[in-house]
Design brief:
Blueprint lengths: L12 H7 L10 E3 L14 E5 L4 E5 L24 H33 L1
Parallel strand pairs: 1-2
Antiparallel strand pairs: 2-3
Function: Protein S19 forms a complex with S13 that binds strongly to the 16S ribosomal RNA.
Organism: Candidatus Nomurabacteria bacterium RIFCSPLOWO2_01_FULL_42_17
GO molecular function: rRNA binding; structural constituent of ribosome
């Protein structure tokens, strides 16, 4: 159920107490478990360690985030990748292309080095 207008937004009071009168640049990461807390304008510039169920994910609050909840920026599920035979082939081709590019770059560097000696 969403919050009605008369209830207002939910901002954790303890979280606000932790940032009152502090400089965002000198303050380190502020750990919190309150994922449902809405980001207010007072929180701009602070870094929050939002708990995702396993670790605290650092979230630097910017202007675009005001009005959103802290939990939106700390995903709880890890996306692995879509798999399958086709995906493996694409990744293998990409890896081979990177290796070829790296070999070409080292060969070009060696040629440039040998031409400087002459």
């Amino acid at each position: 159920m969403t919050r009605s207008i008369k209830k207002g937004i939910y901002v954790d009071e303890r979280l606000l107490k932790k940032i009152v009168g502090k400089n965002p640049l000198s303050t380190g990461t502020i750990k919190t478990w309150k994922r449902a807390s809405v980001i207010s304008p007072e929180m701009l510039g602070f870094t929050f360690g939002v708990y995702n169920g396993k670790v605290h994910v650092d979230v630097l609050v910017t202007e675009d985030m005001v009005g959103h909840r802290l939990g939106e920026f700390s995903p709880t599920k890890k996306f692995t990748k879509h798999g399958g035979k086709m995906q493996k082939e694409l990744e293998q081709k990409k890896q081979e292309a990177e290796i070829a590019a790296a070999k070409g770059a080292t060969a070009a560097a060696a040629d440039a080095k040998s031409s400087k000696k002459l």
